[in-house]
Write a structure and sequence with these properties.
single chain, 201 residues, 2 domains, eight-stranded antiparallel β-barrel, two-stranded antiparallel sheet
Length: 201
C-alpha cells in the first residue's frame, strides 16, 4: 500500500512537472507575441520592427503614439552614415522639421546594447531630449551604450525583425549636404507609411 502511494505521488509530481513546462512554454510564446511589431514601408522596401516595452516602456509608448498618429508617414531618413546608422522620424519630404510632443526620459540604462539591427532614440546633447527621431544601428556601436561618453548613452527600444536587406540598401545610398545638414541622402528615402503589425504566428 505504501509503495502504491509513493508511486501515485511520483506520478502526480511528474504530471505537474509536465503541465508546468507546457504552461511555461505557452507563457513564453504569449510574452514573445505581446511585443509590439511595427511595419515601416519605405521607398526602398519594408522594414519590420519588434519593440521591447518590458525594457524601454517610455520609449516604446512614445514611439507607438507617433505611429498611431501617422506622424511618420511621408517622412524621410534624413541622416545616413553607412558604417554607423540610418536616422529618421523628424523631417518631411520637403525637408521641413515636424513639430513633436514633449521629450521623454532617457532609458539607455535598460541593459540593451546598440548592436547592428537595433533601433534607438535619437537625441541632442541633453540626455532627456528624445522626441520622435530614431535611428537603426548598421554596426555594433558600443560607444552609444550606457553610460557612453556623456554618462548617459542612447536608449535602445527594439530591433529589426525583418528587412535588414532594406536597411542595407538605405545605408548604401549616396549622401550630401542639404539645408546645412550633412549625410543627407541625395535622393529621398521616404517612409511612406508606418503602422502597427500583428505579431508573427
Amino acid at each position: 500500500m505504501k509503495r502504491c502511494i509513493v508511486s501515485l505521488v511520483s506520478c502526480l509530481i511528474l504530471a505537474t512537472g509536465v503541465v508546468g513546462a507546457e504552461e511555461a512554454e505557452q507563457q513564453s510564446k504569449v510574452n514573445k507575441e505581446a511585443n509590439p511589431m511595427v511595419l515601416i514601408e519605405t521607398s526602398l522596401g519594408d522594414i519590420t520592427l519588434e519593440l521591447y516595452p518590458d525594457k524601454a516602456p517610455e520609449s516604446v509608448k512614445n514611439f507607438l503614439q507617433y505611429v498611431d498618429d501617422s506622424f511618420f508617414d511621408n517622412t524621410i531618413f534624413h541622416r545616413v552614415i553607412g558604417n554607423f546608422m540610418i536616422q529618421g522620424g523628424g523631417f518631411t519630404t520637403d525637408f521641413q522639421q515636424k513639430a513633436t510632443r514633449a521629450p521623454i526620459v532617457n532609458e539607455a540604462s535598460n541593459g540593451l546594447k546598440n548592436k547592428t539591427g537595433t533601433i534607438a532614440m535619437a537625441r541632442t546633447a541633453n540626455p532627456n531630449s528624445a522626441t520622435s527621431q530614431f535611428f537603426i544601428n548598421v554596426a555594433d556601436n558600443a560607444g552609444l551604450d550606457h553610460p557612453g561618453q556623456d554618462g548617459h548613452g542612447y536608449a535602445v527600444f527594439g530591433k529589426v525583425a525583418d528587412g535588414m536587406d532594406v536597411v542595407s540598401r538605405i545605408k548604401a545610398v549616396s549622401t550630401g549636404t542639404r539645408s546645412g545638414m550633412r549625410d543627407v541622402p541625395t535622393d529621398d528615402v521616404v517612409m511612406t507609411r508606418v503602422s502597427r503589425k500583428a505579431p508573427a504566428d
